[in-house]
TrEMBL record:
Ranges that cross the membrane: 440-464
Domain of life of the native organism: Bacteria
Keywords: Membrane, Signal, Transmembrane, Transmembrane helix
Pfam families xref list: BatD
The name this protein goes by in its record: BatD family protein
Keyword Amino-acid biosynthesis listed: no
InterPro entries from the UniProt entry: BatD
Signal peptide: 1-19
Length: 587
């Protein structure tokens, strides 16, 4: 009898337990490294309302809330489960408490029990396998490949930014968040007309990659120099835990910020040993010096052109050309500088030149002395000096009627000017006057025209007043007209450049900045996106409109590195017209 009674009590208690509401918090681990992620699940066995998560103090929410529902029937019994999941990143080390979550089920308020977790120092191999953020970070890598980490001063190096994407995820969109500032370098971006996806490997595994940007740098200082990272915001599609009825996984979209990482290069100074006295900083390969004249036979006081040209591969825009020296009997004018330089993945290539205008002042054989030019050769890692040949000019006597002074200054040729015989022939000395008749003004046609004309303006004034009142009552029409005036005022240049990507986005960005200057009275140096958002919202602008304005600025920055279609440019222009009009009404 006792056994039967105990069994009956156990059955009653189990039935009571089954009917009770269960609401509890579970963590993926109670001890984790500061570089790991924590998953927190708030699970209930009955559906409820007004779920309220705790304040995740000392943590940053990097994912969630994700909601999962399980509803199954086994042997006629229903099993229900609903879970809210969050992914947390710790802000630092220590022992922390995850507070109570709340939910209302059948009119009653239920709370979870607080959970203690301990955050330790970073671990070597973080394990966050179920976190979409972690999956995205493990399968997406932005890499800065540097051609030479130990160059000489003024030697060209190349930085190539590659985005590696694992076949396990997909990238749907990306935009640039921050561009590196090469403060210690002379820099030049190389245009990439079209982004092409290629197959490769990353750390021994197969990956797809795309080259986003190529930049040529010439270090201007010696020692350890920092190359700032390129930072992107990328929309990543990550396979989730749910599947469709055919067994295919559903994908989740995660916004992931990736950076190429800081890179440090060690720049070597150019050697002091063997440095020529006329060295002006030229560094390169296969540089050639050429001095030419457009003529070698001429008359005194007649001009000729002499050109000093350096051609090859090197820092062509960053050094001075050697000067041209001439005898005292020849007049030399300031040179005209010309350059024909292309920047490729290997650095600057082409030629630079100074063109002098020379005027010999005396007859005879006039020599142009040789010109010497020194540079540091990167192939041999030594200094080389190039010297031109002497050029000998055959100068004949000056033309008749001109003379040159021995000191070399050309004097004007005196000419006889005939005196004028009749200097005042254009002044009339005899008058021709006509008398005006006694024509009466009163009663004339002009009198009546002037008298009646005010009466004719009265209907026009009445008509104009009616149209003005009707126009003032047309609120929608006034808004459209005001938007058109603003668009013409600020966006006229951008509209003219539709179809030319570079000019369009430059003029569009300039128009947006000019609008802010006029509206907020701030300078371009103050126009950070956070500052713009703060100022506009403080003056009553809608948050959505401010966000669209900042998106337009980001589009202008983004268009410098990626191609844009005519359709995209037209959309950005229409969006700019609308956003400027909305801001003008709100601010």
């Amino acid at each position: 009898m006792k056994h039967k009674l105990v069994l009956l009590v156990m059955l009653l208690l189990s039935g009571l337990a089954i009917g009770q509401v269960q609401f509890e918090a579970k963590v993926s681990k109670d001890r984790l490294g500061v570089n790991e992620r924590l998953r927190v699940d708030f699970e209930m066995n009955q559906d409820g309302d007004n779920f309220n998560p705790p304040e995740f103090t000392n943590f940053t929410v990097v994912g969630g809330p994700n909601q999962a529902v399980s509803n199954s029937w086994i042997n006629g019994k229903r099993t229900y489960s609903k879970t809210y999941s969050y992914f947390l990143a710790p802000k630092g080390r220590g022992k922390f408490t995850i507070g109570q979550a709340e939910i209302t089920i059948d009119g009653k308020l239920y709370k979870t029990t607080p959970v203690q977790v301990e955050v330790t120092a970073a671990v070597d191999q973080p394990t966050d396998g179920e976190n979409s953020e972690y999956v995205a970070s493990e399968n997406l890598h932005l890499v800065a490949e540097i051609s030479n980490t130990n160059p000489y001063l003024n030697e060209a190096i190349t930085v190539v930014y590659k985005l590696y994407v694992s076949p396990r995820i997909n990238v749907s969109d990306w935009r640039q968040l921050d561009s590196p500032k090469f403060s210690d370098f002379w820099s030049q971006n190389i245009d990439i007309r079209r982004l092409e996806v290629e197959n490769g490997t990353y750390e021994g595994e197969p990956y797809r990659f795309v080259v986003l940007r190529k930049t040529v740098l010439y270090p201007q200082k010696t020692g350890k120099l920092n190359i700032e990272p390129l930072t992107l915001n990328i929309s990543v599609e990550v396979p989730g835990n749910r599947r469709d009825i055919f067994g295919n996984r559903f994908y989740e979209t995660v916004d992931k910020v990736v950076a190429a990482g800081n890179r440090v290069i060690d720049v070597k100074p150019l050697p002091q040993e063997g440095r020529p006295g006329d060295f002006t900083g030229a560094v390169g390969k296969n540089l050639n010096l050429k001095v030419t004249t457009d003529k070698t036979e001429l008359r005194a006081t007649e001009s000729l052109q002499a050109t000093v040209e350096v051609r090859g591969q090197g820092n062509l825009k960053l050094f001075d050309l050697p000067p041209l020296t001439v005898p005292a009997s020849m007049e030399k004018y300031e040179p005209e500088y010309t350059e024909n330089v292309n920047t490729t993945i290997n650095g600057m290539q082409g030629s630079i030149a100074n063109q002098y205008t020379l005027v010999p002042q005396a007859k005879g054989k006039v020599p142009i002395p040789p010109v010497s030019f020194s540079y540091f050769d990167l192939d041999s890692r030594s200094y080389k000096t190039l010297t031109s040949q002497e050029i000998l000019l055959e100068v004949e006597a000056a033309p008749a009627g001109s003379r040159a002074t021995p000191g070399g200054n050309q004097s004007a040729v005196a000419q006889q000017v005939p005196a004028a015989t009749n200097q005042f022939r254009y002044i009339k000395l005899n008058t021709s006057l006509k008398t005006i008749g006694d024509t009466a003004f009163m009663g004339s046609a002009l009198f009546w025209t002037l008298f009646l004309s005010p009466l004719l303006f009265i209907p026009l004034v009445i008509l104009f007043g009616k149209r003005r009142r009707a126009k003032a009552g047309d609120v929608r029409g006034n808004q459209i007209r005001k938007a058109d005036r603003l668009a013409r005022k600020y966006l006229s240049e951008a509209k003219k450049n539709l179809g030319d990507q570079t000019k369009f986005y430059e003029s569009l960005e300039r128009a947006l900045h000019n609008y802010l200057k006029a509206k907020l009275h701030i300078q371009t140096s103050e126009m950070s996106k956070e500052r713009i958002k703060e100022l506009l919202e403080s003056r009553g602008a809608n948050a959505g409109t401010v966000a669209e304005f900042n998106e337009l600025l980001k589009s202008c920055e983004f268009a410098r590195y990626t191609p844009a279609s005519n359709v995209a440019m037209q959309q950005d222009y229409d969006k700019a017209v609308r956003v400027i009009s909305e801001l003008d009404k709100q601010v």
